[in-house]
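hey m, so remember when u said the tokens were messed up on ur end? i reran from scratch. heres the input so u can diff it against urs
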Amino acid sequence: MWSLCKKEFRQFFSSLTGYIAIAVFLLLNGLFLFVFPDSNLLDFGYASLEKFFEMAPWIMLLLVPAITMRSFSDEYKGGTFELLQTRPLHPRAIVLGKYLGALMVVWIALIPTLVYAISVQMLSSEGGIDIGATIGSYIGLFFLAAVFVSIGVCCSSFTSNSVVAFIISAFACFLLYSGFNAISRIPAFQAGADYYIEMLGIDFHYRSISRGVVDSIDVIYFLSVIAFLLHITYKNLFKR
């Protein structure tokens, strides 16, 4: 499993595409946080990374599918999936190897964003950023990335076309992230069911952790969604 994980990790950075994807992610966040007027942190007058944690999930909706779209689709298209099956690996180990390899890439893309927190902290004249809320938000962002990667790997296991895998996974990430929140606002669900519908979405639990309190319910939710999606991927590979 670890050999496959390292192979996936090295393969992503073996071409210029991997570096460009991460560079674009960091560049977009930097532009929104320090250049564009509507979201410029320097114009707020107080030290906060709230805007970053609001925008990062939407940018990751494109970054993560771009990283995971070739996980299985290229194996199907190139005919190497049959060779992968001949290796002494259980299908679950194959799924975990692919998943962990892509997850490591996404986490590496997130680590440089710590520079934003350090910069805001150094630029603040007094008080500084809320350390507890910032740590909680980063924990939520890492969990969010883990869920998005599981969605991307799962979608990639259904098609041999990487472009189709990208489109489907981006739509699925968008739907699971904000779809339930949108449905809960329908007037027909305003009698009390809106709260429970909103709880089914990723956005609800991401915002909950971002407050600085890591609740076990939110952690169980993220781990359950990841396990469910990886199980679907495993079942799909088992049928093949």
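this time it looks ok to me. The chain has a mean pLDDT of 81. if urs says something different then somethings off w ur setup not the seq
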